[in-house]
Amino acid sequence: MSTNPPAQPAPNWTEMWMNLLLALAPLAGGPYAVVFAPLMALLMATIDVIKGALAQTGELTPEEVAAFDAWLAERKASPEWQVRP
Amino acid sequence: MRKAISTIMMALFIVALAACATVAPGNDPVLVNAERNLNVAVKSLDALFKTDYQNWQVIDPAIPGWKAAVNALRITAPPVIDAADASIKAYRAGLALYRVDPAQVTQEQLNALATDLGTKIVAAVNLGKQAMAIVGQWNGGGK
Fold first, then answer.
1. Which one of A24, A65, B23, B91 is CB 3.0 to 4.6 Å from B113, fit for a cystine?
2. How many residue contacts between A and B have a Cβ separation below 8 Å?
């Protein structure tokens, strides 16, 4: 086991997305609600991701690694990930 | 309006609860943090790409530069993610050897792998930050 690992990046995802939530809050009731809705859904989806990731306290098992790789390959091949003309 | 604000407050509460990420004893913090950060970065990008794909008819007219910014990430993200994922695999393999027999992989070699891993993860994390910045550029159409 690594006893003296080099410094790792420590992005504060929570703070970043919190700031975005607060920035978007005033738009909820305005004439831009039509845009607010999908952006809010995006933020909520990302918060779920953060929650799931922060729940990870141990190294991924081989099965979890394989599942992530399969998911990533599927997502990269999906139409959502392709450049939109 | 009230419902939307309630949703936001609930989201803030949930995020605040989730802010305490730890590494369980016996697990390598370099590996756990790398896996965690890559997971968040990739899934943040995925959420952005899905949102764009499903709502571009609404968002494009409202947010100048949105389409170009999202498409730019679609081009730059895959190789960066692949590099970070490969670096995690290299570190994981080195760590496994080190745990079995430190003579096969020394602490210095493991640290070198960790340094490379850190660089690749930073690049992936920066993509996640860019995804956030794209959303953050929306300011109500400047009104």
1. B91
2. 208
Cα A25 from chain centre:
19
Contact check, Cβ <8 Å, B118/A24: no
Tokens standing for residue B32: 């756990």
Burial of A50 per CB tally in 10 Å (0-12, 13-18, 19+): buried
* Gyration radius of chain A over CA positions: 18
Question: What is the C-alpha to C-alpha distance for residues B29 and B110, in angstroms, rounded to an integer?
Answer: 13
The per-residue pLDDT for range B18-51, each reduced to its tens digit, is 444 688 999 999 999 999 999 989 988 998 999 8
| Tens-place pLDDT, residues A26-50 | 666 666 677 777 887 888 888 888 8
For the whole model, what pTM was predicted? 0.80
Residue B59: name the closest of A34, A80, A21 by CA.
A34
**B24 φ, ψ (degrees, to nearest 5):** -65, 145
Alpha carbon B22 to chain centroid, angstroms: 17
In 3D space, the residue among A8, A37, A60, A47 whose CA is nearest the CA of residue B14 turns out to be A47
Give the span between the Cα atoms of B30 and B35, in whole angstroms: 9
| Predicted local confidence at residue B13, as pLDDT | 44
Helix (H, G, I), strand (E, B) or coil at A50: helix
Q: Which amino acid is at B110?
A: L
ipTM associated with this complex: 0.81
Which residues on B lie below 8 Å from A2 (Cβ)?
28-30, 95, 98, 107, 110-111, 114
